[in-house]
Fold these 2 entries.
Entry 1:
Amino acid sequence: MSVALTLMIMLVFMTAGMLIASVLDTFFYRWLAGRAGGSLLTPLYAAAAEVSRQRISTEAPDRMNWFLSISGFLTLGAIGLAVVPLGPESAVIGLETSVVLWGACESLVVVLVFLHGWSPNSPLALIGAYRYVAIGLPIMLLSMFVLIAAALPAESLDLRAIVTSQEDLWNVIRQPLGLPLFILLGLSLTLRGPLDYADSADLAGGTSIEDSGANRAGWQVARMSMLVGFSAVAASAFLGGYLGPVLPGVVWLAFKTLTIMIVIIALSHLLARMPVARMLGLIWKVLLPIAFLDLLLAGLVALA
Amino acid sequence: MSWLAKMAGLAEVPVFVAFGEGAPADAASVLAKTPGLRVVETPRAAAVLLVVGTIPEALIPQLHRLHDQLPHPRASALWHSRNELPGATRIEEIAKISVLLRAIHRDLLVGSLKTEPDFLPDAPPNEWRGIGPHGQGGKGMMGGTPFGRPMAMTAADLRDGLELDAYTADFGPFLPMLPPGLVLTLTLQGDMIQNVAVAHPPFETQEQRGWVLLNLLGLPALAERMLRATNIGNATLKRLIRLSGARAAIPEGLGRTHDGSDVRTRFDLLTGTSEPIFTLHVQQTGLDDLLIGLEWHEAMLVLNSFDNASLRAICANTSVPEPDAMAGGMDHGVHAGHMS
């Protein structure tokens, strides 16, 4: 597949993914809230209304970092999708260390969400920013363990090799602890539900409390782009990515990405969020040891 | 009309609600059931400011400041309110609220209705009182009260004595996670509450805050389901709340009062997941007993776990802190605080 064609498929994949994710999110929310009806295009109408409103600036904001946080978050989601192979040898960013690049993106999300809370010069936004960093750092460790475990059967940090290594058996079966732990990371990276410590209701929107107009729309789009990028990476690392019979590889990848997105959206509406100190205890005392166990088991299997 | 305005006109109307005195106890429920409206958590996301009930004279400056925080094009509306707001639409029949606000939203987007101008000048509310060229006014680059707004200054952390930045400000009376009318002067270190004073007690209301607790626990869809439910004992809702792990998410013993109840037990009552097994006694409890040392999320859960009468009694029991205890020296007369 040529680079231009791969790039075009990736852009279509990302755009369609964001639209579908927005519709699913709205649909699931309304269904759970017991609200009947509503158009599938509700998110599009909301986005149009958002960009029709003024973009307000606060007193003495950090304008450059405000813009950088939104555009950067959007870009990181796109990079996530770009490292994912859409078919054999056809990733937009075909690196032998693509897992490391994705790990860097995860870490940069923490930086950019912090900047998003820092930039408006507003206390509740800043609390959201600091709180996200407190949770984001241990969650990154969790991701590191499960991704290294996923890379062990392939003996490579290349996502293309990791997909190929799952021809006989998907990692979700080989390493059953990996995907659930990685999905928790997804909830944190996409600022959703039980791991949304940046933009939560107790802070009246947290880091996005001061966003209006195009900034607000941009931040929501960036969150959706991260949801698509993350889901595609998870589908490739644990569900065999593009592998599958009869249908083209990219269709299989789309199905699997959609499955991960549905799980994340459902969990984000169904699971409660605990106060930050309690969550930190859970991550350090329970989830990280489980992630280490996942890595240990993968290592032992690789040695056997 | 541009295609963008056409699309935007089909969107749900984002409404920020400012609750005042005498607001109907079921106002949040009525608004949740109204088609075509979406109640938002920050005025920055709203196109319409809806004042429900009457904002007392003392809080009118805060209402004006709130109004000016909405992005253009914007409009305001009054429901069950004796307030006067220039340009605001008065809603007489609740049955017409959806049609009325949707029409206002569409007219704003196409420009046939003029956006409401600011009530206040776009300038700092007070004179600059700092020392340095960048607004700093205390020691070095920290502290002081430039423009009447205190800047963070180092103070010992309650938990370990570590010198960190303490910041004092007023929060309320229209923040959606605080009971309506409540204005708290809080000294924060990061997200931990170091000190608290009540600047204005919550308005009297019969409203139950179970749905707010669900929202604070990251379950907005279940919160809306509770608002829309005809009875609190709805079996599906109870099952969904149990499955969400909401009860386990609340730390045991959080916000314990002298009667032995805590946020968990009060959450059970407010969400209808258990029968009343205790009578709330808050005679000797103040907000300082309950909130100091808690992080922000925990503090919000505690505040919303009480019924209105109990919370008003707790506010009345709250000690007035020594002036030196509030880092930064809050200037109530001139600074209205955040999201006011």
Entry 2:
Amino acid sequence: MHETQALPQQSPLANAARTLVPYVVAVLAAFAAVGILLALMGFDVLQAYSTILFTSFRTPNGFVQTLIKWVPLVLQAFAFTIPLAAGKFNIGGEGQMIVGGIGAAAVGILFFDLPLPLLLPLVLLAGMIFGALWVLGPAWLLFRFGINEILTTVLMNFVAFQLIDFVATQIWPDPVAGHPTTVPIGVGGELPLLLSRPPLHSGILIAILVSVLVYLYTDHTSAGYELIATGANPRASRVFGISVRQMFFTSLLLGGAIAGLAGAIEVAGVHGRLIEGFHSNFLLLGIIIGLIAKGNNAAVPFVALFIAILEVGASAMQRTMAIPGEMVFIVEALILIFVLLTDVVRRR
Amino acid sequence: MADTPLINLASLVMLAVVPYLLASQGTMLAGRTGLFIVSQEGIMLVGASVGFLGAYLFDSLAVGMALAMLAGGLFGLALAYFTTDLKMDQFVIGLALFFLGLGLSSLLFKVVVGVTLKPPIIPTLQRLPIPLLSNIPVLGPILFNQNILVYFSVVLSLFLYYLLYRTSIGLSLRAVGENPKAADSLGVNVRRYRYSTAVIGCMLMGLAGAYLPMVYTGTYTDGIVRGRGWLAIALTFFGGWTPQGILLGSFFFAIVDILALRLQVTDIGIPHQFLRMLPYLATIVVMIFAFRRVRAPAFLGQNYDRESRTAS
């Protein structure tokens, strides 16, 4: 109790330190734990860790790769944290991303000839609408019957895996691709490049814009305040006239739309087409990011950047040192667990 | 007579019941003391990986199963410690351990087996016909000519029913999930019940995972659990958090599973992708009915703080 009262009087610097120190401890602890494991398996721990942490900064190529990875990660994290603010768990971001990608590809293929100013906005919008549609079922079941959203959103992922396979092999298949893939979308649907070598698409600007908008929405509007109040105490919120079920519904739909946008950006910016498997692990990493950030939307972009650095480094490590990339997934899970543990320590 | 298509199909359903049954009874057991586990998918993956590796390295399916249960038990121990002693949010730590399981299962396999062109194979579980009973027409080959885990999972369900509703331990156990405060004041050790059900429940999930390579594929592949862990949670709701309900419900899940597989090979004009969606969509539809009728344990998903004598 004394501690919480003393907080506002401290300088912003001390406050920042209080927030950051647990993270540093958690990251170090996770790296130490996995380092022991790596050493036991006979790998060069220092080289592995320097590869993981510095690949992104060694070459322009590495840095651009990290930025491209950051875009879907930060969006997937928001798809998770916005419903989380209302106390709901959206574990269906992957399905929503896939279906958003399908919607984007469908529009991009069907309206192949449209010029860029028309087609690109349509492609992105289709992604958002399809993503939101995919979570509509679970959101409605929660709204209408109070059915646990964790389960319904997860199950819809598995349905989406089949749907993307169907679209990529039966509706618009590209027979020469050698992997379930659709034909390319119209040139007007592709995101313009900011840099051409190495190629960096402008989806990063959209992700930055979304980050700012989400932050403003949740932290600086009354609608966002109602959202957070719902998550903090649904009973009290109901007393004060907030429609709690409506908040659940809206927050899930918003999350779905952002996940769908992530899918559309992958299609319009990275691949120029829909490829089965393009959604690899983004959901899980998004959830990890959201949980490490403790649902704080201002922190999400920075945590996402850190995770993007780890991910890019991990694939470099897998290539050069033959250490399985799953290693970094365990590092991330452990960071999350240690961040949660520092919370417990601080509570005491 | 012995091998008519229908008997064959029913026999396959009995095989498909097992992973659902084991994982859901585990979920139910822990849920009955108030711990809502969401790490099933990860724990089953670890069970599949460790179970396979144990069987492969020690050339014994029994060792594989034992190690898979041990690994599951460790996850249960962690879950119990984080939620009971450290009072962490059950969903958040459950997701974290799900991630850990996901990473560990794949990593262990890769590190131990390495990169090979042909995946290593273990022999699958043998049928264990029960003398006399397996000779009964129709029922014999379906019910009494199965592998040991089929028998075990059914007997376990019956045992859990007896334990929960016919013993004083079961009464205390149920009380912990319904009203830990009252149970505590009557001298029931809430913490001990949560620990033991979490560990045993997660051991069952580990075993459920080990069943998959040992019966279906003979090897471990990433994503071998294919969402069965999540389906198991849905099945637990569907079964009304009772052993007998889960026993019945798992047949429904297994039948949908087998049907979807069967329809894929018999060409009926529906793209196979839509048939593969069937188990997941059927689960969602079923949950609409289940959720309206079923009452979960009152303290499900909540931690019990003894010092404040309220839910935290």
